[in-house]
Write a structure and sequence with these properties.
single chain; about 120 residues; Arc Repressor Mutant, subunit A; about 0% strand
């Protein structure tokens, strides 16, 4: 029973791994390459594909929960996810695809946190 108490939660493991990977230029570049298609589409069309995909995974890949979280109709979420599928060229529910995106989001978040922390220290 004591062993179970020492285990980290999946969220904790992901955050720690992402923070370590964010310090690795090759890992950070790979994440940016994975996300660039979404970001380009969002920049060109203001479509919020990245936010939709992030929320979709945070909501356990539930279209209904994603729609509720984003204050959208379920059909709008489905449409956006179909656009992401077209960009990715695969099913977003596939374990490798979902793991890659969730890790890329976590590493990107960790990099932003580290970068903003570095900028705060320089300003002081």
């Amino acid at each position: 029973m004591n062993t179970l108490r020492r285990l980290h939660s999946p969220d904790d493991v992901l955050k720690r791994a992402a923070a370590a990977a964010a310090a690795e230029p090759a890992a950070l570049d790979a994440c940016r390459q994975l996300l660039i298609g979404l970001r380009r589409a969002d920049a060109e069309r203001g479509s919020d594909l990245e936010k939709t995909l992030r929320t979709y995974y945070e909501c356990g890949a539930s279209v209904s929960a994603t729609a509720e979280a984003l204050f959208l109709h379920r059909n709008s979420v489905r449409y956006r996810l179909d656009r992401v599928r077209a960009l990715v060229g695969g099913e977003l529910e596939h374990p490798r695809i979902s793991a890659a995106f969730m890790l890329a989001f976590a590493i990107d978040d960790a990099d932003r946190t580290q970068t903003s922390g570095d900028e705060t220290q320089r300003a002081q």
